[in-house]
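Extended Data, record PAN2 protein
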Amino acid sequence: QYTVEVPGIAIMRQSNRFFFCGHTSGKVSLRDLRTFVVEHEFDAYSGSLSDFDVHGNLLVTCGFSSRMNGLACDRFLKVYDLRMMRATTPLQVHIDPFFLRFIPTYTSRLAIISQTGQCQFCEPTGLANPADIFHVNMVGPLIMTFDVSASKQALAFGDSEGCVHLWADSPEATFNAYSRETDFALPCIVDTLPHLDWNQDLMPLSLIPVPLTSETLLSDWPAANSAPAPRRAPPVDPEILRTMKKVGFIGYAPNPRTKLRNQVAA
């Protein structure tokens, strides 16, 4: 577990260099993969962050900007170069972007999706063409989720009616047959505790989970009735001190075999 700063993280991505975190405040932070310390941060939008994706040395974001005491969908996609850690020329699209994913096949194309079912494909460093806009025949009124298959040959759209729409570039689309299992959150330990048989006299009471409370426990003795008794380390065997040879500040001695294996003096 790792505690993040307020207001929290809504979107996470990972590359070979960084762990990317999209904040609800419109920022994207780049964290170290091992320590999760923030190394870089991009202030993408003044309102909120909707989605972002990473491919190679490019980071592209879409979101909302603050306008007239409210939030409005920004039609400019912010593009960042991860080699120089700075923003490049933003990409203007012709729909209200809500989701975006890289589709790296022969080029690093972007798929931009609006909540009303419009889909536009364009290059992150080029110009968006209105002719590259397609429409998803949805059952529900809004697109709620979108993703791309690992083979980059299929697109999946989920609408507000619970339907999934699958697009493919050919009737024989290839899917990853060796996908790893999804990592779900650990279940609540209270719901998975074993059943306790109260008819057994030897059932230990320590199996009952006790919540942490601020009340004084019966085992919390006052300081006047208790005294610390640390366990002192046993003295070193004199035979070890007699046969020890020092190399620098480290001593070496053979085992005198005066105690059994794992035997500790009481």
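Summary. The domain at 9-139 is CATH 2.130.10.10 (Methylamine Dehydrogenase; Chain H).
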